[in-house]
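Before a colleague's protein record goes any further, I have to sign it off. What it holds is a sequence and that sequence's fold in token form. Would you go through it and say whether the fold makes sense for this chain? The record follows directly below this note.
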Amino acid sequence: MRYLVSVIDDKSNPGSTDRQPAISEFNERLMAEGHWVFAGGLADTGSATVIDNRGERPVFSDGPFVESKEYLAGVWVWEAPDLDVALKLATEASKICDRKIEVRAFL
């Protein structure tokens, strides 16, 4: 089963910025244990562009689709045998990257 693991940061209470060495070590472990599929950090929300092409013409807007103090800072995609394993890894990930983590299964 694959899981989307979202890293949630908070503009009013951001996570530590010195976590990259620990995150890299965690990622290496995920790879060694066969859980790693993909991961990546995201640029600041100020660099986002939203496209809405549901009308007659596409509309392009600067910034995130929702103004919020919390925002998506990065993602992992993991392979895990079940939700319990994914949640265990996510608990570690939250501590390692000093941010909230959301876990959702791919359908």
About this structure: The longest strand covers residues 70-79. The CA atoms of residues 54 and 91 lie 38 Å apart.
